Amino acid sequence: MDWDAFKALRGGVLAEPAAPGVVRLSESGLRPACRSFFYRIDTPDCAVLIDGGWGLARGRADLGLSPGKPVVAIATHSHSDHVGALHLAETRLGHAAEATVYDRLDPNETQARPWIDDLDFAADGTAVAPETYQQIPCRLTGTLADGARLDFGPALRLTVLHLPGHSPGSIGLLDEARGLFYTADTVHDGEIYDAIPGADRIALRLSHDRVLEVEFAQALPGHGALMSRSAVVERIERHRRERDR
Ligand SMILES: [Zn+2]
Ligand SMILES: [Zn+2]
């Protein structure tokens, strides 16, 4: 089956509360192990979308976005499992180091391929032809640098941390008021990839050093469960032990 037919058949997004005012989104058409997590935060003036999954959202309604309300999407990085719904937002922000990838979302540049060529990712076992996988491009409307502050009013303020290593333009987003840290693929409880094209093991080590200095209550990663700060510390220490072996 081709990707667009699969999307029409198995598209849709699961929504679950993750923290006060924060909804965690994922795509039910995918096997749980292949899903990524992305997040919607509603403010009085706009909805903020942090990442956008593989692309099984068929429209704004699937994301629970109110018609007529502006949507600001923030991309933590340009890998295929996080960028699929970003085109649905009129404002799209990400780090300059990966800006050109969003222009076309070429499956080779988003690391979709060859990753998906042998990946059995459909929850119902459908074989999706990898050569038909093409996401809708989402050229950035603005870039984010380390230390940038995104002010959505009293309901939401986010600070950008440039955390290269998993990819050159990976960012984390810190919501100090809620004690939430969106860590994407830089820290999560699954395999942290640091040897794929664009990854840099030494840069990741320095980025993990930075994460260890951040105060937060809960990490909201791009994969796997929400993590306490102590779970994040343990995960980084385990990653280091594995690499030092
Ligand atoms: Zn990634
Ligand atoms: Zn990922």
UniProtKB/TrEMBL annotation:
It comes from Methyloraptor flagellatus. Gene3D superfamilies: Ribonuclease Z/Hydroxyacylglutathione hydrolase-like. It comes from the Bacteria. Residues 35-223 form the Metallo-beta-lactamase domain. InterPro entries: Metallo-B-lactamas (IPR001279), NDM-1-like (IPR050855), RibonucZ/Hydroxyglut_hydro (IPR036866). This is MBL fold metallo-hydrolase. PANTHER family: METALLO-BETA-LACTAMASE DOMAIN-CONTAINING, METALLO-BETA-LACTAMASE SUPERFAMILY PROTEIN.
